[in-house]
Amino acid sequence: MFCRIELFFRIELFFRIEGGMPFIPHTQEDLRIMLDAIGAADVEALFDEIPANIRSRDAMPNMPEALSEMALMRLMRERAGQSGAGLNFIGAGAYEHHIPAAVWEIAGRGEFYTAYTPYQAEASQGMLQAIWEFQSMMCGLTALEVSNASLYDGATALAEAILMAVRANPPKKGPDGDRPARVLIPASVHPKYRQVAAAMTRHQGIELVEPSFCAKRGAASMNGLNLVEDEPFSALVIPLPNFFGSIEDVDTLTDWAHKRGALVIAQVNPMALALLKPPGEWGAAGADIACGEGQPLGAPLSFGGPYFGFLTCRQKLARQMPGRIVGRTVDKDEREGFVLTLQAREQHIRRAKATSNICTNQGLMTVVAAIHLSLLGPEGLRSAASACHGNLNALRRRVERIDGVSLWFPEAVSFHEMVLKLPMDAALVVERMRGEGISAGLPLGEWVEGMDNALLVCVTETKTAEDLDRYAAALSAALHREAGA
Amino acid sequence: MFCRIELFFRIELFFRIEGGMPFIPHTQEDLRIMLDAIGAADVEALFDEIPANIRSRDAMPNMPEALSEMALMRLMRERAGQSGAGLNFIGAGAYEHHIPAAVWEIAGRGEFYTAYTPYQAEASQGMLQAIWEFQSMMCGLTALEVSNASLYDGATALAEAILMAVRANPPKKGPDGDRPARVLIPASVHPKYRQVAAAMTRHQGIELVEPSFCAKRGAASMNGLNLVEDEPFSALVIPLPNFFGSIEDVDTLTDWAHKRGALVIAQVNPMALALLKPPGEWGAAGADIACGEGQPLGAPLSFGGPYFGFLTCRQKLARQMPGRIVGRTVDKDEREGFVLTLQAREQHIRRAKATSNICTNQGLMTVVAAIHLSLLGPEGLRSAASACHGNLNALRRRVERIDGVSLWFPEAVSFHEMVLKLPMDAALVVERMRGEGISAGLPLGEWVEGMDNALLVCVTETKTAEDLDRYAAALSAALHREAGA
Amino acid sequence: MSVIFEQSQAGRLASLHQNAPAESGEATLPESLLRQSPSGLPEVSELQAVRHYTRLSQKNYGIDTHFYPLGSCTMKYNPRGAHRMAMLPGFLDAHPLADDSLNQGVLACLYELQGMIGDLTGMAGVSLAPMAGAQGEFAGVAMMRAYHTARRDDARVEILTPDAAHGTNPATASMCGYVVREIPTTDQGDVDVEALKQMVGPQTAGLMLTNPSTLGVFERSISEISAIVHAAGGLLYYDGANLNAIAGRVRPGDMGFDCVHVNVHKTFATPHGGGGPGAGPVGVSERLLPHLPMPVVVREGDEYRLQHCDERPGSIGRMSTFHGNIGVLLRAYAYLRLVGREGIARVADYATLNANYLMARLRDAGFQLAFPERRATHEFIISLKPLTDATGVRALDVAKRLLDYGFYAPTIYFPMLVPECMLIEPTESESREELDRFVDALTAILQEARENPELVKTAPHKTPVSRLDETRAARKPDLAFSRG
Amino acid sequence: MSVIFEQSQAGRLASLHQNAPAESGEATLPESLLRQSPSGLPEVSELQAVRHYTRLSQKNYGIDTHFYPLGSCTMKYNPRGAHRMAMLPGFLDAHPLADDSLNQGVLACLYELQGMIGDLTGMAGVSLAPMAGAQGEFAGVAMMRAYHTARRDDARVEILTPDAAHGTNPATASMCGYVVREIPTTDQGDVDVEALKQMVGPQTAGLMLTNPSTLGVFERSISEISAIVHAAGGLLYYDGANLNAIAGRVRPGDMGFDCVHVNVHKTFATPHGGGGPGAGPVGVSERLLPHLPMPVVVREGDEYRLQHCDERPGSIGRMSTFHGNIGVLLRAYAYLRLVGREGIARVADYATLNANYLMARLRDAGFQLAFPERRATHEFIISLKPLTDATGVRALDVAKRLLDYGFYAPTIYFPMLVPECMLIEPTESESREELDRFVDALTAILQEARENPELVKTAPHKTPVSRLDETRAARKPDLAFSRG
Q1: Contact assessment for residue D205 and residue D156, using Cβ atoms and an 8 Å cutoff
Q2: B/D interface, count of CB pairs below 8 Å
Q3: CA A339 to CA A121: how far, in whole Å?
C-alpha cells in the first residue's frame, strides 16, 4: 500500500544514467533523431577523430559531483557570509561608494548581460549606444576628445597608456642605434600599477624610471624628477590623487614634461575629477592621455574585480588607441546609429601589428558606468566627491587628537585618503582594530620601505559621523592597549 | 586660498530652498514655463479650489526628513538583518522553498514590474500571455477547467470560493422564507482561513459551520460531519493537506457532499498536488472548485506577503468566478493574442452586482508562478514535493527516538507537516530552541483549545540531514534541560 | 509568439531544480492518494523558460519603458531602490509566524509606516492589513457597519456613492450587505448637495467619496457634505485613490472623513506589477479605532509586536492569512523615507502642475475639456465627442493609436458621465519634455483622424499584435491551454 | 532614439544620490586645483535614466532573447543563479586588500576553481589572475619567455601560429617581443606538419595552437606536432577558446601542451556582457610553475591565503591591480559546481552533437561545407561562395538577413582562409527545435537570395536601424557627444 521513497529518486537516477543535465535540453528522443540525421551510431562516434591514446574521461579529483541550485545557493550564502571587510577604511585603488540600486538592476538585464561584443551592429544598438555615451562621459570628465570602450582595469589602462605614448612619441635613434624608450612613472604612483606596467611593457624595450617622492607632501618632487631627466623620455605619468591620496602639482608637472618633449599621461580617479581640475586642462597645454580605474563609477568592491580601465586622449592620438571604439554613423535611411569603428588598429584585423592584443574588454562595466553617471548627474558625482573629502577631514580632526597620531606627510593635500603616522607598527594596529569589526586601512610596511608605522586610510561618502567616532575610539584603544601592555 | 566645505553643500541647500526633489524632474525654468502656460502665478494658485480652512501643510510628527538612497539602504540592511527565522521549521500556511534565481530576475524586469493592469491589450501582451499560461498551469495542477488571474491570498481565495459556491448553489427557500446559506468548513482547515472567511462572508447571510476533526487522524471525521448534516448546506470545504499537515480522505468526503447536493471546495497546497490526487479527480465526480495559497510556487516568505490566491473551477461555474480572467483570441490579422475577458462579472462593469469587489489582484505573483513552474517543470515540482515528504519522515524518525516525544495524531498521514506531542508546553520548547537559532515550529496552544503541548512542525526540501540532526539535538536538549531543572 | 506549452517536450529533464530528500526511507503516502494524471506543466530547459519570459516581457509597456498617463492610476516612477531594499534576504526569509523578537527590523518599518500614513491622512489609527484598495474599502465599510452595529443602530442599510465613483465602491458596499444609492453630479463635477440632502436619513450608513473626485476636480463642498452626512448619523469613507493630488496639503481627516484607505501603488510609488500586488492600508478616526482589521503593529518600550484579534475584540477581523502584503508595504515605506516630509508635499505640487500644464496645452491644441472652468487636480478629462461626431473616430481608437506613438493610453470611458472621455494623469515624475511630446502625439492623431480616419480606427499598427477581438474572446472563451 | 545628453536639462536636480559629508568643516583643497569647467554629465531624473537604459537594452539581442550561433564564442546559457550568487552582499563588499582572514569564503571558491581548471586542462598549476583570454595568452607567452630566459636560452625569438589562428595569438606574441611566423593549413584543415618541421629550430620559442582549431575540426596530428616543437626546444601554448568541444574528454596536458588559457565566458558559461568582463585563467605544466602570474590562492591547513610575487620570484608578475575579475570567476565556479564532474563531459557531448546535427541538416539543405569530410567539433564552417558567385549575395548579407528572422548571426569572414564563410556554433544549451528553426531560416534566405537578392542585400529590415554605414563611421569619426 505504501510506495517507497526510492520511487521519488527516479529523477536523480535519470540524471545519472540517462543523460539529463541542467543546461542541456535534449530528450532521449532528440538524441536518437539527431544521431540518425548525422549518421552516427552514438555520441562517442562524434569524437572519433580524437586519437584514442590522448583521451581521458576521468582523473578529475578536484571536480565534485553536481549540486542543485538550491544546495549551491546555500553554500554560496555561507561563503559570502565569510567575506567582506566590515566597517571599511581601506582604499588604495578600490573604493567603497554608494551605487544606486537601479544601476545593476538595468545592467543585469539579459539583453545587456548575455550579449556578445556588438559585431552585428543592427542587433546591438543598445550596447553600442550605451558605450558611446560612456565614451562621451569619460571625455567630459577628463576634458579630452577621444575615449575607448574600456580596458581591463586601472593598472592595465596605465600600461596601455604607456605603450601608446611610446608608439606616439618613440625615442629618437641614438648614436649607437635604437635607444630604449623611457617613461617616468613617479614612485607616488600605486605600487601595483607600477608592477603591472612593468610586466606588460618589459618585452617591448621600454624602461620605466621611478623618480622619488617628496617626504613632506607625499607627492612627486621636482628634485626627484630633475635627477632622472638626463636622458630623453617619451612620457611622464602624473597620478591624481596618487597612491598616498595626495594631490600632485599637476600644472607644474605637465608643463615640465611638455617642455622636455614628452607626452603627459594622467592617471586619475574619475570621481575626484568631479572636484579637481581635469587632465585636459592641466598646465598650459593639458595632458595628452588620461587613464584610470573606473571602479568608483558603479563597480562594487568585489574582492578586486571586475572593474574597468578607461583611456582617453587627444584627437591626434586616436589611431594609437588600443581596444575598441564605438562611433556614431547613419543607416541607409539616414537614421542615427552606432558601430564599432577604427578597427584597423585591432588584433582581429591587424594581428601581429595591432595596437594591443586586447579583445574582450569590460563591456558591461561601461554600461554600469554610463547608468551610474546618469543617475548621479554632475551634481550627484560632485556631492559624493565632496562628501568623501569632507569625511576625510572629519576623520583627520578626530584622529589627530589621539596622542602619538599625526600625518605622515604633514604638507599633503589629500582627496579622500591620507597616510597616518602611528606610534607603533601599523599592521598590529590594524589587526587589533579588526577585532572591533573595522578594516582600519592599509599598513604600508610591506608596500613602501621604511613605512612600517604608516597607515593609509580612506574615507568615502559612505561613512557617517558615528562611523568616524567609532574609528577614532577603536584606534585610540588599539594604541592605548600597547601603552598599557 | 582654501574653499570652505560649505561650498559643497549648495546642492543640499538647493533641495531645501529651491524645490529640487528626487523623483521630480522639473527645473526652475520648467516651473516658470509651465505656470505661464497655465496662467497661474505660482503652484499655490493651482490649489485655490481647496477651501483654506481645511488645508494643512504641517503636523506630520511621524514623517521624517528625506534620506538619500545610500542612507536608507544602510538602514534597511540593518533592519533586514533584524528579520528572518533562522533555521526554520515553521509552516502553517507559509512554506520555505527553493526559488530558482531566474524567477525574480525576470519577474522584476521593468516591463512586468512597472506595468498596470493590462487594459490596453495590444501593449500588454507579455503580461496577458503570462497570466494565461499561469491560468493553464493552475488548471493542470488542480485538474479543473477554468482559473482566474489570482486573488489576494489563500484565505481570501477560500472566502471567495465560498461566496461563489453559495451564488452557484443557493439555499432553497424554507417554509419561513429565505434561509441562510450554510457552508461546512471543518475545524481541520487553517484557523486563520476560517477567520478570514468569516470576516468576508458574514455580511451576506452565510453561516459557516465547523465540524470537528478526528483526534487520531487529525482530519475531518465522518462523525463530525454527520452531526451537522441535519440542515441543507451549499458546500463543503476540504483541505489538502489540512492545518495539521494531515491528508484528508478526499474521495469519501467529496462523494458524501455531492450526495447531499452540495458543492465541493478543495482548499489545496499546489505543491502537494505534484504528488497527490488533484481536486478534479476526487471521488466520483471531482471537486467543483479548487482554491489555495500560491505562495509555495515562487513567493518568498516575506513575513506573510505578497503571496497570491488561486481559484479554479468547472467550466459551468466560470461566470460565477470572481476577479479577472484572461482569454485567448485573435487580432484583426488572425494572429493569436490575449485579452481580459468575461469582464461583465467584474466591479468596473457590474458595480454593485459584481461577483466580487476585487480590482487589483496579485498580478506579478502569477508571472512569478508561471516562471517558477516552467523552470521546475513537472518533475522539478514533483521532486521538491517528494523531498519535502521524505524530509518530514526523516525528521519524524529522529524525534520519535526522543523520550516523551510522539505524534499528536498517531494515525495521521502527513505531507510535509506534522504535530508533535511534547512532554511540556510547546511554547517553552520553541523559546529554548530559538536560542539555538532554530524556529522549531508553531506551538498550537494559542491556536487550538487543549493543544498546549502540541508543536506543528514543517520540513521542506530546503533541509539537509545535518539540519535535521541539529533539530533533533536541540529538541532533546530543550526537553532535557527541563528534566534536569 | 508560441505559448510555453508548445515548447514543451515530453521527457525533457533540464531542470537545475531537482531535489532529493536528505535520506531515503519508507514513505507514508498510500498509493491511493497519489496523483496518476499528468499535471500538464511544461517541460522546457532553463534557457527556454528564461528566453520565453524575457521575450514576453518585451511585449509589455511599463513605466520603465513608456509614459503611462493612465488616469486614476497614478503611474509614477517606482524607485528601483525600494525594490532592492524590500528584496533583502532578511525580509524575504522572515516567516510570518516566527516570534516577534526575530522580526524587529520589519516590524519597525511597518510601525513607522502606520505613523506616516496616519500623518498624511489625519487619522488616529492605521492598519496595514488590507491587501489592495478594494480590500481597504471592504475593511472601511465593514468598520462602519461594525460601528453602527455596536451602537445597535441597525436600521442603517444604505451606502451612498457619487454616480462617478469607482466600481469598487458600490461593489464593496454590496459585499458588506448594503444597498447602494448613487448621488448625481452637477455639471461642474461636484456632488449635487441638494440631492444629497434629499437622500440622507436614518437609513444612511455612510457615504463613500474620493476627493479629488474621479472627475479630476476637487470637491469644494466637502465640509458641507461631511456635515450633512454626519448630521444624519452616517459616516464618511474616503477612497484614497486620488491622494497623490493632495498629500501633504489637505488631509481627509480635516475634511471630515471617518475612515480612509490609501493605494500604495498610487501615492506611494509601489509598482503595480501588471495588476498587483498592491496594498490598501486603512486609517480611522478615534471612533472607529476599536474596529480596525488585524494585525496592527504596536510599540512597547523598544520592542515592536503584532497585535491580534483577541486584543481588539471589536475588530472586523482578519483580511488575510497573515499580515498583508508586507513586501509591498516595505516598498511604500522606502519611498516615503526617500521623499520625506518636504518631498511628499512637492509630489502633490508637481503632480498638479503637470496635470494643469497638460490640460492647458491640450485645450490650446483644440481638445475639449470636460470641465473647462475648473482647475485640474492631478488629472483631468478631455472629451473626444466632437471628433467622434465629425469623423467616427472614437476615444478607443485614439487610445490605440497612442500606442503606436510610443505612449500607453489614458483611461478611457471612465468616468462614464463624460462621453468619449479620456482621463489623463501625468504624475509628477514625468518631465515637461515628455508632456510636450505627448501633446504633439495627440495633436498629430487629431490631424490623422480628420484626414485618414481609417488609419486611427484600425490602430494600433506597431504593437506585437493589432487590435484584438474582444467579442470573440467573450463569446468563445479560450481560458487555458489544452493539448486536445 | 535620442542620446542621454539630449535629454539633459541644465539645473535639473532630480538625483536621489546627493550626499553631504558627516559634518561641515574647513576643506583642504586649494581653489587652484578645483574643477571650473563642466563635466558634461547628463542632468536627467532617475526615471529618465531608467527608461533610457531600459529601452536601450531592448534594442540588443542577447542569449536571453535570441539564438546566438556565433562561432568561436560559445554563446551558451548563462545561469541566472550564478549571477545571483556572485552578487551576494558579502562578495560585493569584499575589499581586495582586506586581511585574508576576512575573505575565507571567496578564497575557498577561488582555490577550488583553480583545482577544477587544473583537472580539466591537465595542468599542474593554475592562476586565475588574467582578466580575459587575451591577457591569459599574454601571461602564457610571457611565461614561455620567462622559462627560456631562466635557462639562458635567449636565441629563441620566434613564435609560430597557424594561419587560421585568432588575431589575439599573433598580437600577443608581438606584445611579448616575439616575431610571429604563420604555419600553413592543409586542405583538410590540419596544420601542415611538413611545413612545421621546416619552420621549427633553435629560434623557436613556442607554438600557439587551439585545438579544436578555429576551422571547427580537431587537430589530429597534435601528438606529432607536440613532439616536433618540443624536440626543437620550443613550448606549446594552448588557446582555450574551443575547450567547450572537448572538456572532460581530452585534456590539453595530455596533448602535450605546456601552458593553457581558458575563456570562462565560453566553456564556463559566464556572461559576455556585450564585450566583457571575462576572465582568462592560465594553467601550466610543472616546468612553468615558477613563472605563474600572481596572485595564486594557496591552502594551508584550513586557511586560504593569497600568494604574492615575493613568494614566487620567477613569476612574470601581476596582470591587474588586484586579483583579477573575481565576480566573473565566481560565476564560473558556480557553473562548474552546478554541472559537476558528470555534467562537464556531457557539455562537450551535446555541444558536439548539436554542431554535427546542424552541419548535417545544412548540408542536406544545400549549403557548402568547408570541410565536408570532417566531423564538426562544437562548431563548423559553411561557405556561401557559390551563392555569392551566383547572386552577388554575400555572407554579410545573409548574416544581416538572419537578424530579421530573429537570430543573431554566426561569425562571418573568420577564419579568413575560407571565402564567404560562416562559422556556426550552436552550443549544447539550444534545443533541437531551435536548431531546426535556424535551418528553416537559412533555407528561406537561400531562396530569397535566389529570387530577390536585393531583399537580402539591403537587410536587415526589422531591426531598430537598417544597415549602418561603417565606412562613414571610420572616415568621419564621431566618437563622443559634443554640445557644439
Answers
A1: yes
A2: 92
A3: 6
pLDDT greater than 50 at residue B17:
no
Buried b (16+ CB within 10 A) or exposed e, C311-347: ebeebbbbbbbbbbbbbbbbbbbbbbbbbbbebbbbb
CATH number for the domain harbouring residue C423? 3.90.1150.10
Q: What angle do CA D85, D90, D93 make, to 5 degrees?
A: 115
**Looking at the structure, do residues D186 and D296 belong to the same domain, yes or no?**
yes
Q: What is the pLDDT of residues D156-212, one digit of tens each?
A: 999 999 998 888 999 999 999 999 999 999 999 999 999 999 999 999 999 999 999
Tell me the average pLDDT of chain D. 95
C160 at B interface, C-beta within 8 A: no
**Does D247 reside within a domain?**
yes
Judged by a CB distance cut-off of 8 A, whether residue D128 touches chain A is: no
B448/C contact by beta carbon, under 8 A: no
Q: Is there a contact between C16 and D338 if contact means CB atoms under 8 Å apart?
A: yes
Total of domains in chain B: 3
Residues C297 and C358 in one domain: no
Q: In D, which residues are within 8 Å of A204 by CB distance?
A: 175, 177
Q: Do C47 and A25 touch (CB under 8 A)?
A: yes
For chain A, say whether C462 makes contact (Cβ under 8 Å). Answer: no
Same domain, D167 and D268: yes
DSSP-derived letter for residue B66 is P
D321–A192: do the CB atoms touch at under 8 Å? yes
ipTM, interface predicted TM-score of the complex? 0.97
A385 interface with D at CB cutoff 8 Å: no
Strand residue runs (E) in A323-393: 326-330, 336-340
CB D104 within 8 A of CB D306: no
For D334-378, what is each residue's pLDDT tens digit? 999 999 998 998 999 999 999 999 999 999 999 999 999 999 999
* D192 and D282 belong to one structural domain: yes
Judge if B262 and B308 occupy the same domain.
yes
Min Cα distance A7 → chain B (Å) is 9
- Residues D138 and D112 placed together within one structural domain of the fold: yes
Cβ separation of D47 and B23 shorter than 8 Å? yes
**CB-based contact, D26 to chain B, within 8 Å:** yes
Tell whether C468 is covered by a domain. Answer: no
What's the domain range around A57?
2-63
Q: Which domain does C431 fall in, by range?
A: 348-462
Tell me whether the omega of the peptide bond preceding residue A25 falls within 30 degrees of 0, making it cis: no
Contact: D58, C64; criterion CB under 8 Å: no
User: Quick check: is A149 in a domain?
Assistant: yes
Spell out which residues of chain C touch residue A77, defining contact as CB-CB under 8 Å.
Answer: 89
* pTM for the full predicted model: 0.97
- What's D191's domain CATH number? 3.40.640.10
The answer to whether residue C21 scores a pLDDT higher than 90 is no
CB nearest B100 (choices: C16, C272, C470): C16
Alpha helices by DSSP H, A410-453: 426-434
Same domain, D190 and D297: yes
Helix residue ranges, H only, A39-153: 69-81, 101-107, 110-113, 125-142
Write out residues 29-48 of A within 8 Å (CB-CB) of C: 29-30
pLDDT per position as a tens digit, C146-203: 999 999 999 999 999 999 888 899 999 999 999 999 999 999 999 999 999 999 999 9
Q: Does the residue B367 lie in any domain? A: yes
Query: What are the pLDDT digits (tens) for B78-137?
Result: 999 999 889 999 999 999 999 999 999 999 999 999 999 999 999 999 999 999 999 999
Neighbouring subunits of A (3+ Cβ pairs under 8 A): B, C, D
Query: Both A203 and A302 in a single domain?
Result: yes
pLDDT score for D20: 81
List the chains bordering chain B where 3 or more Cβ pairs fall under 8 Å. Answer: A, C, D
Q: Say which CATH number the domain at A106 has.
A: 3.40.640.10
Task: Please check whether residue D7 touches B, CB under 8 A.
Answer: no
Pairing of strands C259-262, C282-284: antiparallel
CA A259 to chain centre: 31
Domain count, chain D: 2
Mapped onto helix, strand or coil, the DSSP state of residue A433 is helix
